Amino acid sequence: MSSLTGKPVSFWIDSTATTQYPALPNDIAVDVAIVGAGIIGITAAVRLKQAGKTVALIESKHLSTGASGHTTAKITSLHSLIYADLIKDLGEEKARLYAESNEAGIAQVVEWIEQEQIDCDFSRQNAYTFAESTENVDKVEAEAKAAISLGLPASFVKDTTLPFPIAGAVKFENQAQFHVRKYLLHLAKKIPGEGSYIFENTQVRGVENGTPCTIETDRGTLSAQEVILASNLPMLDRGLFFAKSYPKRSYIVGASIARDRAPEGMFIGTGENYRSIRTTPYNGDVLLLIGGEGHKVGEETQTEENYRKLEDYARDRFGIDTCDYRWSSQDMVSFDNLPYIGNLTPADNHVYVATGMSLWGMSKGTMAGMLLSDLILGIENPWAELYDSLRATPFVSQTSIKENMDVAIRWVGDRVKGLNKDLSDVAKGEGKLVTVDGDKVAAYRDESGTLHTVSALCTHLNCIVNWNSAEKSWDCPCHGGRFSCDGKVLNGPPLADLEKVDLS
Ligand SMILES: Cc1cc2nc3c(=O)[nH]c(=O)nc-3n(C[C@H](O)[C@H](O)[C@H](O)COP(=O)(O)OP(=O)(O)OC[C@H]3O[C@@H](n4cnc5c(N)ncnc54)[C@H](O)[C@@H]3O)c2cc1C
């Protein structure tokens, strides 16, 4: 089988410099501490600073290298197919608030880009959800009707600039796209100074609610009147958000394409094997991004195969020979289509959270940053109730029970399935689970032949990690924790690395 093409790195990260903010140097005090520097954290930090608060934005790695550095970066209130369901499940009033709040998120992005003259390859684009076969066309038509009834700039169309026929599409006019890191890194420059800070390479490990709150990190302690957890999934388990949502991983390939062959607009398909499509300026030409093959983190999947399917699609549909980039990332999906934005628990009246953007966090994440800053500033916000993190959750709905059952089944299954016992057959560049003296060990042999052995128990809730061959990572099937081949935390919720196992 041919090897995968394309650099295994996000185009947004590859085409921007790594930020170099200091780690937390000593104990400090601010009005608001914000944990996590993705689109939610940066948006909230900038708004709060603009409102006169001192803030500390604390990031365990570097700014915008989580989901926000690996997104497709369509800024749109068209979220695949959602409005017909929202009207059916929640009623027209709540569906309208969802629409308005996302349009407000887009407007905030545009306002800052214009005000700050941010050079971030921003362009206005129409967004489409398309059905290739007649099978899904009714849903698309119903979505167009629902969106129109809510006042969104929607219509049902049969023609697009895609180089293949479609059965129909819902089109939203005047949506937008950008280079997400050019936008976020520019915005972040507004944060430090006048008592406000950005700290990188600083991992938050605990938060105690109080007046003030105490934030414990691997570098020291901070105190803050209010704390926002914008770490994608909160690293604190006490709000149970890991059980109210699930992590979905999705893949993207990027290929250079002549401008006259590139489609105009942003697209997402329907049905099981849907594709997400957009373009972005690239070396004087255009980079075509194709996304898809999403699945729950840790689910049995051939990661190389996922990229190959996207490459095949680029080849078949757009005549692409090779890809320039490939990358993947994950986001939390909520069970009722709505993000959770508000307090972490009823007792945590000074600790706030935003999670469950369900792979549409450019408009929603911006909106979350706006809503969180309003909550902290005591400004009444019309969206607060809709997204209330403490709402009666569908924790016990059919879907969430099934999702949680998958987790439980997986947990039990992982524990009983026969593990390979022989370390000698771990090939170079490969990872395998082995049993050593009854302990489950995750063993990885690097290209020089050195074996790296760590405990296979995820440090979050002790599920057993799985080897992910394309990303060369250990992925936890339960709540989305991911670790590097030698056991270092890549994605939350785990805070600690996999424990080293010395087999000598
Ligand atoms: C493949 C893919 C494509 C997508 N495409 C789109 C799209 O086209 N349009 C759209 O609207 N949305 C899209 N999304 C969704 C969107 O990218 C996300 O919803 C959004 O980026 C989430 O932002 P965030 O701030 O919650 O998380 P992140 O960007 O992940 O930020 C969280 C940060 O917290 C840090 N952190 C974690 N734990 C700690 C800790 N203990 N201490 C300190 N820091 C910590 C992490 O390092 C990270 O930088 C896509 C998502 C994926 C995965």
TrEMBL record:
CDD domains: Rieske_YhfW_C. Keywords: 2Fe-2S, Disulfide bond, Iron, Iron-sulfur, Metal-binding. GO terms for cellular component: cytoplasm; membrane. The keyword Ribosomal protein does not apply. It comes from Lusitaniella coriacea LEGE 07157. It comes from the Bacteria. One of its GO terms (molecular function) is metal ion binding. This is FAD-dependent oxidoreductase.
